[in-house]
């Protein structure tokens, strides 16, 4: 294990130990936050009892649908826009200011339009994720050396074959960054929407537990979301490192 | 004398004016004949349209005026079958290993996977890359990456190989050795080679005939026949006639290079 990795683990462990000490000393009261070892115990009990598996499954399915649809539509849109300079120039101001738009403000409208089901939550996740994917895809495609595109042409590849076999593979590190962003935004969109208004899901259960001072439910669910995000991000980062080291960039 | 494989008649290239700019007359009119199986080189001052000339023959861009024919067929803006190109820049695909990079040259060919692997292995062998077949380009030197690009081009068995300053980014010793490699490839494949270079010694060492181009818009202002034997290598630079050829090339080119630098007529 590298020294850097040891430092990273030490920082996280130190933070958890500090929280543990503050909780045990009563600086952080029990109603605000239980000690980390209590949260871990409640988390294990929750998993062993199979509580909230339905809620967890529903939220993760919605996150996955929002992520996958935003990713596929985003990469395809980015690839097409890259070939149409005028369309890209027209949309550039929208992309530049997109994250200043509070997408959650549209949630009530979506509920009116699509009902209080999974649709509005997936749509919010999709809307939050897609522009990050489009912008990152464009960013990657801008960096494809023209000599690779010329090589594709002299080898007789058409536009679609060039995208699939040359430009998108070249952009793979950027596409992995896009996946990381899309996943984070899909989590924020879906869980956040469940917080605001829903009848089920992890966000809804966290919100419900919060209003009922049920820390034994709220913190384990927050911990689960945290662990899932870190696990997915670590997996994508690992692929990114493999790709970059193969290209001599890391 | 062999028949012409490529003919350029009155070829001109003018790039249209961009926003706020003016049209650029890059090349021509130029007339050139390239014979089958010869090693043909083009030298000229920077910006004279050498690379544009190569892109025209490759079908990567269309001429504004004139006609280019490859084996009797007019080349427009379509890549002619039987033509391969090696560029100056590193054109290896960094996500593919050497074997996969070379096989890429056969992707559009209607042949089976086994035959592709066999042909790629033969070319990898020929280019001295056998021990690096599973290696990724990032782990190779600049000279070896360029050999991968040459292998990817010749695996498709082109009848005309276009080289756009392929050794320009390499050090002098590697360039000389790569020149030897290229001469060997030329003899073994029987293909015609068209080399664009700014290095006079490289052109004099490799080519059977050398065209000297003027400053922009590039026109053919001299044609030098080296009369080298087909069996040759970089040791040809030791011959007296080698010096005479490079001297002649430089004599013609010096005035054109000065024009490029805005110092035409300088005798210094």
How is this structure best described in words?
The complex is a heterodimer of chains A (250) and B (268). With 250 residues, chain A is mainly α. Chain A has helices at residues 3-24, 36-49, 53-83, 85-97, 107-114, 118-142, 146-154, 159-170, 172-196, 202-211, 215-246. In chain A, α3 packs parallel to α6, α3 crosses α9 (172-196) and α9 crosses α10. The longest helix of chain A is centred in the C-terminal third of the chain and has 32 residues, at 215-246. With 268 residues, chain B is of the alpha/beta class. Chain B has a domain at 84-157. Helix content of chain B is 33%, strand content 24%. In chain B, the strands form 2 sheets. Chain B has a 6-stranded mixed sheet, with helices on both faces. A 4-stranded antiparallel sheet of chain B has the order 2-1-4-5, covered by helices on one side.
Estimated radius of gyration of chain B: 19 Å
Largest sheet of chain B: 6 strands, mixed
Helix/strand order of chain B: EEEHEEEHHHEHEHEEH
Terminal-residue CA separation of chain B:
41 Å
The total domain count of chain A is 2
Mean pLDDT level of chain B? 88
- Let me know the number of strands of chain A: 0
The CATH class designation of the largest domain in chain A is Mainly Alpha
Q: Percentage of helical residues of chain A?
A: over 70%
Strand percentage of chain B, roughly?
A: 15-25%
Which series of helices and strands of chain A comes N to C?
HHHHHHHHHHH
Q: What oligomeric assembly is this protein in?
A: heterodimer
What is the rounded distance between the termini of chain A? 17 Å
- Unreliable segments of chain B (pLDDT under 50, ≥5 consecutive)? none
């Amino acid at each position: 294990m590298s020294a850097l990795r040891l430092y990273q683990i030490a920082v996280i462990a130190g933070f958890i130990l500090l929280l543990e000490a503050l909780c045990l000393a009563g600086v952080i009261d029990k109603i605000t936050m239980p000690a980390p070892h209590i949260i871990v115990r409640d988390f294990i009990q929750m998993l062993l009892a199979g509580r909230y598996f339905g809620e967890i499954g529903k939220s993760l399915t919605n996150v996955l649908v929002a992520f996958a649809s935003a990713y596929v539509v985003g990469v395809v849109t980015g690839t097409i826009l890259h070939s149409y300079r005028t369309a890209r120039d027209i949309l550039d101001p929208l992309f530049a200011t997109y994250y200043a738009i509070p997408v959650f403000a549209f949630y009530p409208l979506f509920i009116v339009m699509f009902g209080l089901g999974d649709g509005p939550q997936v749509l919010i996740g999709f809307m939050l994720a897609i522009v990050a994917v489009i912008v990152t895809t464009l960013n990657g495609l801008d960096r494809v050396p023209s000599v690779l595109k010329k090589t594709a042409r002299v080898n007789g590849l058409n536009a679609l074959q060039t995208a699939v076999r040359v430009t998108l593979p070249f952009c793979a590190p950027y596409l992995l960054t896009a996946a990381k962003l899309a996943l984070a935004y899909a989590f924020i969109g879906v869980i956040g929407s469940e917080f605001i208004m829903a009848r089920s899901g992890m966000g809804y259960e966290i919100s419900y537990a919060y209003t009922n001072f049920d820390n034994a439910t709220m913190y384990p669910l927050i911990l689960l979301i945290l662990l899932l995000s870190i696990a997915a991000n670590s997996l994508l980062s690992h692929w990114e490192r493999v790709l970059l080291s193969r290209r001599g960039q890391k | 004398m062999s028949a012409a494989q490529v003919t350029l008649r009155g070829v001109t290239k003018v790039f249209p004016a961009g926003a706020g700019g003016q049209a650029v007359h890059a090349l021509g009119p130029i007339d050139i004949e390239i014979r089958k199986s010869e090693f043909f080189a083009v030298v000229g001052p920077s910006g004279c349209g050498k690379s544009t000339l190569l892109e025209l023959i490759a079908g990567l861009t269309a001429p504004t005026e004139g006609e280019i024919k490859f084996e009797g067929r007019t080349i427009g803006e379509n890549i002619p079958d039987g033509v391969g190109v090696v560029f100056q820049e590193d054109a290896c695909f960094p996500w593919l290993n050497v074997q996969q990079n070379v096989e890429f040259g056969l992707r559009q060919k209607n042949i089976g996977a086994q035959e592709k692997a066999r042909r790629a292995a033969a070319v990898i062998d020929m280019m001295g890359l056998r021990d690096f077949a599973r290696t990724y380009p990032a782990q190779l030197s600049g000279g070896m990456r360029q050999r991968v690009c040459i292998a990817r081009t010749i695996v498709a068995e082109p009848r005309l190989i276009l080289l756009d300053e392929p050794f320009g980014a390499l050090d002098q010793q590697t360039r000389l050795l790569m020149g030897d490699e290229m001469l060997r490839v030329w003899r073994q494949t029987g293909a015609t080679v068209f080399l664009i270079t700014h290095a006079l010694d490289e052109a004099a060492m490799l080519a059977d005939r050398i065209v000297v181009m003027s400053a922009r818009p590039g026109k053919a202002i001299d044609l030098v026949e080296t009369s080298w034997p087909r069996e040759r290598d970089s040791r040809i630079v030791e011959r007296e006639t080698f010096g005479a050829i490079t001297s002649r090339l430089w004599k013609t080119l010096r005035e054109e290079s000065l024009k490029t630098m805005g110092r035409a007529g300088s005798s210094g």
